[in-house]
Amino acid sequence: MSAASRKSDDPPDPARLSRLVVAVGENRDRAAFAELFGHFAPRIKTYLLKQGAEAGQAEEMAQEAMIMVWRRAESFDPAKSAASTWIFTIARNKRIDALRRERRPDYDPADPTLPPALVPAAPAAADRAAELTQQAERLAEAIRALPEEQAELVRMAYFEDKAHGQIASETELPLGTVKSRLRLALARLRKALNAGGREDA
Amino acid sequence: MSAAHARPRHHFDEALLIDYAAGNLPETLSILVATHLSLCPACRAAVADAEAVGGALLEALAPEALAPEALDRVLARLDDEAPEEDAPEAPGAGGLPAPLRAYLGDDLKVLDWQQLAPGVDKVPLTPLSNIPWRPEEAVCLVRLQPGAVAPRHGHTGNEVTVIVRGGLADGSGDYELGDALIVDAGVTHAPVGLPGEPCLCLVYLEAPLLPIGDDHVASI
Fold this sequence. Notes:
By secondary structure, chain A is mainly α. Chain A contains eight helices and no strands. Chain A has a domain of 93 residues: Rna Polymerase Sigma Factor, Chain: A, CATH 1.10.1740.10.
């Protein structure tokens, strides 16, 4: 797969982004990496600026996050998540490490003590790629369609490092209201995510 | 674990799972969530969906240009040797889930158990990062022998518990493998170990406990 064959002004679709990460993981493909960099590094920088990083720090951290993408690309599983999801988790962990200076405990998907999830067998790669694209479109549409009162809390949770308890005290909304709005937002977005595809256990 | 692995019945609130997926929780509470996720496929699916939301939000952000030489700088660094990452602690005799093994290893016998009451003891966890936890916050692994009763206590902040082995009961119900139990400030309880193997549970305190005698006000 040649990463250079695409016209530079098309926005890369989710299936292509996924193939690019796989090309980096499997073939150490620098052209694929450069294309991922062009798409994601400026968005990671925006994310970090929103989270309170100084401009120079956001620049440096975005570059470091992309180096993590290079190093970890082999662990990316296109059947499990979209490239944007996987890269979001890398940017998030970079932020926790650099801005909060904390560890982020995570479960280990390879942990032998882990009980298996009840997920159906992964669809064929081609189906999955098409599904990812549709899923990304549905999700983006669902995010745009969130009622403003839910969208505002989602932005605070994802871009302002605010846990729901802190959102409640800053917005002076009752804790139960914050919880139920976030829950409702996630339910709508999960519905969009899972609409033509996977059933939850 | 066997196919008949019990699945947790008591879960974390989705708002807390969003906080975890968005990266808004302190290291302390994250250990509890990660431990529950290790034992709960349903909450793992919810966190995966909340991370997909994060991915879609990242996609939708307006790009902020990097310095013109940024790509070349990064390309030049790609072949640098990666800093060593801590190897995950391999499972051992203790059977603890990975997030706990990172803090405690997996040999319960060598841990520094402190007795709280007859049949009840605990080991405090300490941060893996260089940032100390707030002095009033604490995460402990607590062990309750079958029938042993933890001293009745009240809470000045939330107390969060995840069962790692065996089970316990308080007035609000029975809690078994993987179950999450959240006790609000102002409530008192005295958990008791269920029959069978000793109960191991991970406990996070947002604020100090209130030791209470039998003359408690609100009890569950």
